[in-house]
Automatic annotation (TrEMBL), chain A:
Regions crossing the membrane: 6-22, 34-53, 59-82
Record protein name field: proton-translocating NAD(P)(+) transhydrogenase
Lineage of producing organism: Bacteria, Pseudomonadati, Pseudomonadota, Gammaproteobacteria, Alteromonadales
Example of a GO MF term: NADP binding
Protein's cellular compartments: Cell inner membrane
Keyword Transmembrane helix assigned: yes
Automatic annotation (TrEMBL), chain B:
Cited SUPFAM superfamilies: DHS-like NAD/FAD-binding domain (SSF52467)
Main location: membrane
Record-linked InterPro entries: DHS-like_NAD/FAD-binding_dom, NADH_DH_b, PNTB-like
One MF term in the entry's GO annotations: NADP binding
Protein name: NAD(P) transhydrogenase subunit beta
TM region positions: 6-24, 59-78, 90-109, 115-141, 153-177, 189-208, 215-233, 239-259
E.C. designation(s): 7.1.1.1
Record-annotated NADP transhydrogenase beta-like domain positions: 10-457
Length: 93, 461
C-alpha cells in the first residue's frame, strides 16, 4: 500500500511540474534548468538520513556522507549560479 | 508508530514542497525569477535543517565535513565559472546530481535494512538512472568543452553493443530483485550494475553531435530529477519524490520544446548518429556576394530597424559585448534593434539569452522566433551572427532537405540580410544554406567580433 501512496505523490507532482514549467518563457530556459538542477540536489535529504544513522553500519555511512558531499555541491552550486544568471536579466532603463 | 519528531519532519516537508512549487511558479517571469530561485532555496534549507532533527541521525561528524566540503566546492564553482562556460557548468551539475543518487542507492543497498522487492527495484532504478546521468553528463561536458570531438561519434556495430548493454542491465536488474540474497551477499552484482549504467550513459551521448546538445542537456537534467525521485522511492521519502519529479517534468518539457524546435522526434535525436549521412544532390543557384564591414556600416547607418539573429558562432567569437555597443550606436541613430532567438540556437536551452543578458541587453529586446517571423519583412536589416541552420530557408522551401519542416527564423524575408561568418563552411547539419545565395544577402566574412568592432568604430568617427 505504501508503494501505491508514493506513486500517487509522484503522479500529482509530475502534473504540477508540467503545468508550472509550460509557462516559463524561452528567455529563462537556462536559469530554469540550473534552478531545477539545484532542486534535484534534494537527494541531500535522503543522503543525510544514511550518513548519520550508525545502525546502518560504517560502510553505508561513508557512502551516505559522500552522497551528502555531492548533493551539497549540487544545491549550493546550483542555487548560486542560477542567482548569478538571474541577476543579469534586466529590464530596459 | 510515528513519533512526534517524524510528524514535525514530514509536516515541514509539506511546507517545503509547497515552497518549491511556488518558487518554480515565480521562475516563470523574468521580473520575479530571482525571487523564485530564493524561495526554492529556502525550501531546500528548510528540508535539510528539519531532516537533521531525525532521531536516527546520531553521528554528525561526517555530515558536517561532507556539507562543508560540498558547500565550499559549490560556492567557488558557482562564483568562478565564466558565463560563457554555462553549458559545461550545467552539464557538470547534472552529473554531480546523478552521482549523488548513485551513492544514495549504493548506501541503501549496503545498509541492507528492510529491503523488500519493491525497494530493491526502485533502488536499482536510482542506481541505473543516476549512473547514466553521471557518465552521460561527463561526456556531454567533454563535448561542450571540446575535450573530445563535438561531432557524433559512431562505430560499426554500435547498435548491437547497445542492445547487449541493455540486455545485461535487465539481467542484473533481475538478479537484483529475484535473487536478493545472492545479489546482496556478493558486491560484484552491484559493481557490474554500476559499470553497465556508466557505460550506457557514455554510449547514449557519444553518438549525439554538438548542435543537438540542447536536447541532451535537457534530457540529462530530467534524468537527474528522476534519479532523485527513484532514490525517494527507495528511502520512502516524500519530499525527494515531489522535488525529483518536478525536476523530471521540467526537463522533459524542455526536451520536448527543443525537439519541436528542430522538427525531430526524441528518438531521432538520440539515434540519428547511427543513420547514414544524408547526401543532398540539390544544387543551389546563385552567387555569394561578399560585403566589407565599411560598406555594411553605410547600410546600417541608413537603417530604421535591425534584427539580430545570434547563433553558437556568436558565443564562440565572444561577440555579444561588442554587439551591445553596436546596439547603443544604432539606437542613438534612431534605429530599432531587436534580437530574434531560436529555441535551439547555441548549445543549451536559453544559451543566447544568458550571453546577451551578460552583455547587458535587456530581455525586452529579445524576441522568440514566432514573434519575429510575423514582422520580419518590416526589418531593414537582418544581421545573422554565427547562426546557420536556424536561419536556413531550405527548411521552408526545399522539400527533401534534411531539415525540411524545421521551424526557422525567416531571415531571408528581411529587406537586407548580413551574414557574419568565418568562411563558407556549411552548418552543423552539413547542408548548404540557400540563404547565402539569396539576392538580398551579403556575406561579411571574418571574425564576428572584429567585424562588429570595426562597424562600431565607424559609428564613433
Amino acid at each position: 500500500m505504501e508503494a501505491i501512496y508514493l506513486l500517487f505523490i509522484l503522479l500529482l507532482s509530475i502534473f504540477v511540474g508540467f503545468e508550472l514549467i509550460q509557462k516559463v518563457p524561452a528567455t529563462l530556459h537556462t536559469p530554469l534548468m540550473s534552478g531545477a538542477n539545484a532542486i534535484s540536489g534534494i537527494t541531500v535529504v535522503g543522503a543525510l538520513a544514511l550518513a548519520g544513522d550508525e545502525t546502518l553500519g560504517e560502510y553505508a555511512m561513508y557512502l551516505g556522507a559522500f552522497a551528502v558531499f555531492l548533493a551539497t555541491i549540487n544545491v549550493v552550486g546550483g542555487y548560486l549560479v542560477t542567482d548569478r544568471m538571474l541577476a543579469m536579466f534586466k529590464k530596459k532603463q | 508508530m510515528t513519533s512526534n519528531i517524524d510528524l514535525v519532519i514530514n509536516f515541514t516537508y509539506v511546507i517545503s514542497a509547497a515552497l518549491f512549487i511556488f518558487g518554480l511558479k515565480l521562475l516563470g517571469h523574468p521580473s520575479s525569477a530571482r525571487k523564485g530561485n530564493l524561495v526554492s532555496a529556502v525550501a531546500m534549507l528548510l528540508a535539510i535543517v528539519v531532516t537533521l532533527l531525525d532521531n536516527n541521525i546520531v553521528n554528525f561528524q561526517w555530515i558536517a565535513i561532507a556539507m562543508l566540503a560540498g558547500g565550499v566546492v559549490g560556492f567557488f564553482a558557482a562564483r568562478l565559472v565564466a558565463m560563457t562556460d554555462m553549458p559545461e557548468m550545467v552539464s557538470l551539475l547534472n552529473g554531480v546530481g546523478g552521482l549523488a543518487s548513485v551513492f544514495v542507492a549504493w548506501a541503501t543497498i549496503q545498509s541492507g535494512a528492510g529491503l523488500t522487492a519493491f525497494i530493491l527495484i526502485v533502488t536499482f532504478l536510482a542506481l541505473l538512472i543516476g549512473g547514466v546521468t553521471f557518465s552521460g553528463s561527463i561526456v556531454a561536458w567533454a563535448k561542450l568543452s571540446e575535450r573530445i570531438t563535438g561531432r557524433a561519434v559512431t562505430f560499426s556495430g554500435q547498435a548491437i553493443v547497445n542492445v547487449i548493454i541493455v540486455l545485461a542491465i535487465v539481467a542484473t536488474g533481475y538478479a537484483f530483485v529475484a535473487q536478493p540474497d545472492f545479489a546482496l551477499s556478493s558486491a560484484e552484482v552491484l559493481y557490474v550494475a554500476l559499470a553497465l549504467s556508466l557505460l550506457f550513459g557514455i554510449m547514449l551521448v557519444l553518438p549525439i553531435g554538438g548542435a543537438d546538445m540542447p536536447v541532451v542537456i535537457s534530457l540529462l537534467n530530467s534524468y537527474s530529477g528522476l534519479a532523485a525521485c527513484a532514490a525517494g522511492f527507495a528511502l520512502q521519502n516524500n519530499i525527494l519524490i515531489v522535488a525529483g519529479s518536478l525536476v523530471g517534468a521540467s526537463g522533459i518539457i524542455l526536451t520536448n520544446i527543443m525537439c519541436k524546435a528542430m522538427n525531430r522526434s526524441l528518438s531521432n535525436v538520440l539515434f540519428s548518429g547511427f543513420m547514414a549521412v544524408h547526401k543532398s544532390d540539390m544544387v543551389i543557384e546563385g552567387e555569394v556576394k561578399p560585403l566589407s564591414a565599411d560598406d555594411a556600416f553605410y547600410v546600417l547607418e541608413a537603417a530604421q530597424s535591425v534584427v539580430v539573429i545570434p547563433g553558437y558562432g556568436m558565443a564562440v567569437a565572444q561577440a555579444q559585448h561588442v554587439m551591445k555597443e553596436l546596439q547603443i550606436q544604432l539606437e542613438e541613430n534612431d534605429c530599432e534593434v531587436a534580437y530574434a532567438i531560436h529555441p535551439v540556437a547555441g548549445r543549451m536551452p536559453g544559451h543566447m539569452n544568458v550571453l546577451l543578458a551578460e552583455a547587458d541587453v535587456s530581455y525586452e529586446h529579445l524576441f522568440e522566433m514566432d514573434d519575429i517571423n510575423k514582422r520580419i519583412e518590416n526589418f531593414d536589416v537582418a544581421m545573422v551572427i554565427g547562426a546557420n541552420d536556424v536561419v536556413n530557408p531550405a527548411a521552408r522551401e526545399m522539400k527533401g532537405s534534411p531539415i525540411y519542416g524545421m521551424p526557422v527564423i525567416n531571415a531571408d524575408l528581411a529587406k537586407n540580410v548580413f551574414v557574419l561568418k568565418r568562411g563558407m563552411a556549411s552548418g552543423f547539419a552539413g547542408i548548404d544554406n540557400p540563404l547565402f545565395f539569396k539576392p538580398n544577402t551579403r556575406m561579411i566574412f571574418g571574425d564576428a567580433k572584429e567585424t562588429l568592432s570595426s562597424i562600431v568604430r565607424q559609428f564613433n568617427d
